[in-house]
């Protein structure tokens, strides 16, 4: 992992001033805030257009249509746009916009995504505005975040702070269900993370009890498939030396031990799908199960799917090892196998991430906004920023705000967009002007 430079920089700044910095906005920063406000309706209009274009993860053409809408927005700001093909993993690809500045300046990576969980067959397809509220598929997650990025970069362009800045904007087309293997599906994002000094994630801003919250950590998302087997026979012989416990009792034993033996801080685990009987199988996407059986037959097969979430890679590795141990300890006359899918890695809390968050709160102070608190990582899901957090300091939660994401009433609070865009524009401008 790259060593953080922020702690040293912040300490030097404090020593030089003799007190915590309380600088006011510069003239360029004031210009940025005015630009964000002046262009608010333009920002909402763009948001409406991209929300009304379906871009479910599996809708390749829909995602590419959104990317086509976004291309001129970035090119007008001096970015070079590339659509990176992902046909190898049956996904729409990624939208990368690059702006090369002074080689000595910090390199900033901005991360968002164009896809949503709502496929073309969803009944939820339209942006609907009611004053400062609007509903629509992906209006918060993450088309609202993309709107915040563009609003911030427009403000920087107007104020002249894009000049000299080294910025890559990475908008993935499959954040909700990335193309596997990750070595292909996340190759370009990881390379951008290795290039960057700082990564900023533009998924949703969390608000708790009226307070805006910062995110310096996100938990992983790891899926597993457990298959148990038993000796099929007459139910009257269950638990005998010959028949054993059967596949469903073996499944129940393992799941019960998961529940009693796995709990620890920052870990959650879930069983989301289960089937067993004389026959049991999952569909191609492992989203549906089909089973047959009779009450007088000992079941020879059971299948379960679930997930677990962790705060560090060490915790992920340890939990996987413990799950394998529990699975291997078979009940009489049974067998079991657990397989782990590729998942999202954790974005662990680090001193560098915390220093970035402190810089954000310095921006809040200069904008006259309340100090932000830190969000409990257990309240955040997995995200693309976790793929780069191993390589660079990272800060997430800089996108839009609202409620109901992933549901048929997903709603954005439009009044939060200017606040987030101003924060982002000033933070990016300050960081991008510093030497590496």
SSE layout:
Blueprint: H1 6-17, H2 27-38, H3 40-51, H4 60-75, E1 80-84, E2 94-99, E3 107-113, E4 128-130, E5 133-135, H5 143-159, E6 166-172, H6 182-185, H7 187-195, E7 198-201, E8 206-208, E9 211-214, E10 222-229, E11 233-234, H8 246-261, E12 268-277, E13 279-282, E14 289-292, E15 297-298, E16 301-309, H9 313-328, E17 335-340, H10 351-367, E18 373-374, E19 393-395, E20 402-403, E21 411-413, H11 416-432
Parallel strand pairs: 3-6, 3-7, 7-19, 9-18
Antiparallel strand pairs: 1-2, 2-6, 4-5, 5-21, 8-9, 10-16, 10-17, 11-15, 12-16, 13-14, 20-21
Features:
Aminopeptidase, six-stranded mixed β-sheet, Alpha-Beta Plaits, 436 residues, alpha+beta, 22% strand
Q: Compute the separation of the termini in Å.
A: 16 Å
Using the alpha-carbon principal axes, give the shape. Answer: elongated
CATH topology of the largest domain: Aminopeptidase
Structure class? alpha+beta
**Beta-strand percentage?**
15-25%
Residues in helix, %: 25-40%
Number of strands: 21
Find the CATH superfamily of the largest domain.
Answer: Zn peptidases
Largest sheet: 6 strands, mixed
The CATH architecture category of the largest domain equals 3-Layer(aba) Sandwich
Mean pLDDT: 94
The radius of gyration is 24 Å
Domain count, please report it.
2
List the uncertain runs: 7-22
Main CATH class of the largest domain: Alpha Beta
Strand order in the sheet with the most strands: 1-2-6-3-7-19
- Count of runs of 4 or more consecutive helical residues: 11
GO molecular function, one term: carboxypeptidase activity
Keywords: Carboxypeptidase, Hydrolase, Metal-binding, Protease, Signal, Zinc
Cofactor: Zn(2+)
Protein name: Glutamate carboxypeptidase
């Amino acid at each position: 992992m790259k060593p953080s430079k922020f702690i040293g920089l912040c300490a030097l700044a404090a020593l030089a001033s003799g007190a915590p910095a309380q600088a006011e906005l510069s003239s360029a920063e004031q210009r940025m805030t005015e630009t964000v406000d002046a262009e608010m309706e333009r920002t909402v209009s763009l948001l409406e257009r991209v929300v009304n274009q379906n871009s479910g993860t599996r809708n390749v053409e829909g995602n590419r249509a959104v990317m086509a809408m976004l291309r001129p927005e970035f090119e007008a700001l001096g970015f070079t746009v590339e659509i990176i093909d992902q046909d190898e993993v049956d996904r729409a690809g990624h939208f990368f916009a690059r702006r090369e500045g002074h080689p000595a300046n910090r390199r900033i990576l901005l991360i968002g995504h164009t896809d949503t969980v709502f496929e073309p067959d969803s009944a939820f397809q339209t942006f609907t505005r009611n004053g400062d509220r609007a509903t629509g598929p992906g209006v918060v997650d993450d088309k609202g975040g993309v709107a915040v990025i563009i609003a911030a970069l427009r403000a920087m362009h107007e104020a002249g702070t894009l000049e000299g800045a080294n910025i890559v904007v990475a908008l993935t087309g499959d954040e909700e269900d990335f193309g596997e293997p990750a070595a292909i599906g996340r190759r370009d994002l990881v390379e951008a993370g290795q290039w960057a000094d700082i990564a900023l994630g533009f998924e949703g801003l969390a608000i708790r009890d009226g307070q805006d919250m910062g995110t310096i950590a996100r938990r992983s998302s790891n899926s597993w498939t457990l298959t148990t087997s038993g000796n099929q026979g007459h139910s009257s012989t269950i638990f005998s030396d010959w028949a054993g416990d059967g596949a469903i009792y073996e499944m129940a034993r393992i799941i019960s031990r998961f529940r009693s033996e796995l709990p620890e801080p920052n870990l959650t685990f879930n069983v989301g799908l289960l089937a067993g009987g004389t026959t049991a199988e999952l569909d191609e996407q492992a989203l549906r199960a089909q089973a047959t059986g009779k009450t007088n037959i000992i079941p020879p097969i059971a299948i379960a799917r679930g997930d677990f979430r962790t705060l560090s890679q060490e915790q992920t590795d340890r939990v996987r090892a413990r799950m394998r141990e529990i699975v291997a300890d078979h009940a009489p006359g049974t067998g079991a196998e657990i397989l782990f899918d590729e998942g999202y890695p954790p974005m662990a809390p680090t001193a560098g991430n915390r220093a970035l968050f402190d810089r954000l709160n310095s921006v809040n102070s200069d904008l006259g906004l309340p100090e932000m608190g830190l969000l409990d990582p257990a309240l955040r899901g997995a995200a693309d920023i976790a793929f780069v957090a191993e390589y660079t300091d990272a800060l997430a939660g800089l996108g839009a705000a609202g409620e109901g994401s992933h549901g048929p009433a997903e709603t954005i609070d439009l009044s939060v967009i200017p606040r987030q865009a101003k924060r982002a524009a000033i933070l990016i401008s300050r960081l991008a002007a510093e030497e590496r």
